[in-house]
Design brief:
253 residues, alpha/beta, 2-enoyl-CoA Hydratase, Chain A, domain 1, 7-stranded mixed beta sheet, carboxyl- or carbamoyltransferase activity
């Protein structure tokens, strides 16, 4: 197995913590919010507010589920349009109350089902990206597993984008890439090497700003210790500086 595909396999493995456990380890007094105020709630997208030390923050995270029932309900971590619209609603709320935003990303991509497409999956992602690009508050995005296509990018328009050492970030899966490029999904390992989807490759290309070791059950505490000073540093910037820096960051690509 190639090194790149080993990373893919590690990114797809079940984590030793659930998404909710990760959130609860990062912040205290987490209050979950539901619904997009238009269609329904999406269990694949967890969102709410909590305290990062003395700082109130908004947390938005994709969730793959922990049981067969919840995995089916979340489409194995693939949000539907109302999930992305919920995320956009919570981001706007964060801006209104001047709360920094932390996103936690672990998704193979947006759900491609017929109902999702009929209800504007692409538009929901595009609207979320536009909103995030203009938000005056700090945004830190962390890829903690799979980061697939626009479904992941929708939550990764941060002032800083981090990855764990057991995560991947790509335009689509290696199997999908191989199927399109070579008409042979069995060449997924080769595709993974070509795609440069590993944390090391993406850090070298400045797509991500930091690689964070996933220490398993201790990961939430370790991540929290890194987020506290980073959020404080971003909050010290003026809004103009923050938006100009964010714009310049993504214009590089």
């Amino acid at each position: 197995m190639t090194r790149a595909y080993e990373v893919v396999q590690a990114a797809r493995e079940e984590r030793p913590y659930t998404t909710q456990e990760l959130i609860d380890g990062l912040v205290t007094d987490f209050q979950s919010f539901h619904g997009d105020r238009n269609h329904s709630d999406d269990p694949a997208m967890i969102g709410g507010i909590g305290w990062l030390d003395d700082t109130p923050v908004t947390i938005i995270a994709t969730d793959k589920g922990a049981t067969l029932k919840t995995r089916l309900a979340t489409h194995f971590g693939s949000p539907e349009p109302w999930g992305y619209r919920k995320a956009e609603r919570l981001m706007k709320q964060a801006a209104k109350f001047n709360r920094p935003i932390i996103t936690l990303i672990n998704t193979p991509g947006a759900y491609p089902g017929q109902e999702a497409e009929a209800n504007g999956q692409g538009e929901a992602i595009a609207s979320l990206l536009l909103t995030a690009s203009l938000l005056p508050v700090p945004i830190v995005s962390v890829l903690v597993g799979e980061g697939g296509s626009g479904g992941a990018l929708a939550l990764a328009l941060g002032d800083q984008v981090w990855m764990t050492d057991k995560s991947m970030y790509a335009i689509l899966s290696p199997e999908g890439f191989a199927s399109i490029l070579w008409k042979d999904s069995k060449r997924a390992q080769e595709a993974a090497e070509v795609m440069q989807l590993t944390p090391d490759a993406l850090f070298e290309a400045t797509v991500v700003d930091r690689i964070v070791p996933d220490t398993g059950v201790d990961f939430a505490a370790d991540l929290r210790a890194r987020l506290v000073p980073t959020i404080a540093e971003l909050q010290a910037q003026s809004t103009t500086e923050r938006l100009e820096t964010r714009y310049a960051r993504f214009r590089r690509f």
